[in-house]
Amino acid sequence: MKLVVNADDFGYSKGVNLGILEAHVEGIVSSATMMMNMPGVAHAFRLAADTPTLGVGVHLVLTCGSPLEANVPTLTDENGMFRRGQAHLEDVSAEEVEREFTAQLETFFRSGRKPTHIDSHHHVHARETILPVVLRLAERHGLPVRYPWAFEQAAERSHTTKVHTTEGFSHHFYGADLTADGLIAIIEGLSGSATAEIMTHPAYVDEELLKGSSYAIPRARELQILTAPKVKEYIKLKKVQLVNFNEIG
Q1: pLDDT at residue 87, rounded to an integer
Q2: Which residues of the chain have pLDDT under 70?
Q3: Dihedral sign (CA 151, 158, 1, 34)
Q4: For burial by CB atoms within 10 Å, which of 34, 53, 140, 169 has the most?
Q5: What domains can be seen in the chain, in order of their start residue?
Q6: Which own/partner pairs from 165-169 qualify as long-range (CB within 8 Å, at least 24 positions apart)?
Q7: Does 172 carry a binding-site annotation?
Q8: Residue 121 among known ligand-binding residues
């Protein structure tokens, strides 16, 4: 099996960035996706430039921080920040979403890199109102997209025929009760797929993360597990190939 172990939220803060880097260098993380609108993005780009073995894609954002585009009123609150939560996403303007996502992707391209793939913060790309926009952008740029069928809001598979993704996906490595054995069980459960992805969120917990995210302390536990000798030994024993989205074809 070719397995992408992706660390979400690259660029959120320096603590998140350094945790992701360690989970790659010392552990099993093979890929990360970058939040183009967050304060740690320049730091993330510097780390990525020094670490060419880490695949880096774009973590499209609609629910955290501020937009890169001006005049997107269906996406923002009275302070010009992205609205929190997801209830409003049923009524957002698809044109505003496309302009904002285009701005996020173009900001990445201006770094001189091509992203390995697209996914999204809080899985917003799986929503019926947003998935067509993401698929259109993915086709335009020739980019794979995180498996969108794992979430309740996902559209039919027939909508994604032209966009490459993995055969399997797990978002279950998440929460306060994570263990190395639990991660191994997730990997084992994906073993029937030729290609698969596991979503992760390793980090060193810093002030920005504590203030801004409801999911903070467990990220340090994720980092510990993703670098655990037991997990690395299992990967080696089972001959799992750790890859990024450029290598899943």
Answers
A1: 82
A2: 149-161
A3: negative
A4: 34
A5: 2-247 (3.20.20.370)
A6: 166/4, 166/193, 166/195, 166/196, 166/197, 166/248, 167/193, 167/194, 167/195, 167/196, 168/192, 168/193, 168/195, 168/196, 168/197, 169/196, 169/197, 169/198, 169/199
A7: no
A8: yes
